[in-house]
Amino acid sequence: MLSTNDLRVSYGMSEVIHGVSLNVGENETLTIMGRNGMGKTTLFKSLIGVLPSQGRITLGDEDLSSTQPYQRVQKGIAYVPQGRLVFPTLTVEENIATGLEATGAKKIPTDIYDLFPVLHDMRHRKAGNLSGGQQQQLAIGRALAADPKVLLLDEPTEGIQPSIIKQLAKNLNEIKQMRKISIVVSEQVLSFAMAVADRVMVIEKGAIVHEEDGKTANQEEIARYLAV
Ligand SMILES: Nc1ncnc2c1ncn2[C@@H]1O[C@H](COP(=O)(O)OP(=O)(O)OP(=O)(O)O)[C@@H](O)[C@H]1O
């Protein structure tokens, strides 16, 4: 579905993603694990196109390498950034509606509110008044409004309490089931990653250093990569 080949990303003269090649299959969840500063956010920003990169990025048969972020969204990539970045002064409903611009649809798909009933209950409230977990749900709901083929989530559990993290894992599995989409999620929380991953990759210093099947993954080995 979404693939990269020899992806390289630099800040000025300094290359921080060193030739990453990956592929997420149809209806697959790929979890990319790595400690702070290993390159997860940089990788995601290059996938959605807000950072320039070298190498190839393809979605299905289409080469996206030289396309703009809005074109990638139109073609089916949605991005939930680290820190969520909802629009605090817009209502919940208005936030979700911004995702509709990609498709030109006028109505919020009902499955978003089925998935996150609290967003329906709070649809007229300002997003800035929601808790961190609710804002994360809103950011995911907004991304789903763009009807993506691939959903990218950058460290969705950051700053979220453990009980809500469990719920979030359940939500991601429901989304994959409901929408039959591909999901790429970066994470540092091992339990969350194991609850959602079909496949796990570990990123260290901008390179993929380990990969295995999510269902049979050796958690101790992955935990060693995450230990400081
Ligand atoms: N705007 C920038 N300019 C220069 N270097 C940067 C910039 N943003 C990130 N870096 C560097 O790029 C490397 C990868 O950072 P990145 O934020 O992608 O890592 P990360 O795995 O997402 O970490 P975190 O979990 O802390 O967000 C780090 O060495 C970081 O210092």
Automatic annotation (TrEMBL):
Keyword Protein transport in annotation: no
GO MF term set: ATP binding
Gene3D superfamilies: P-loop containing nucleotide triphosphate hydrolases
Alphabetically ordered keywords of this record: Amino-acid transport, ATP-binding, Nucleotide-binding, Transport
Presence of the UniProt keyword ATP-binding in the record: yes
Domain ABC transporter residue range list: 2-228
NCBIfam families named in the record: urea_trans_UrtE (TIGR03410)
Family: Belongs to the ABC transporter superfamily.
Name of the protein described by the UniProt record: Urea ABC transporter ATP-binding subunit UrtE
Organism lineage string: Bacteria, Pseudomonadati, Pseudomonadota, Gammaproteobacteria, Pseudomonadales
Gene name per UniProt: urtE
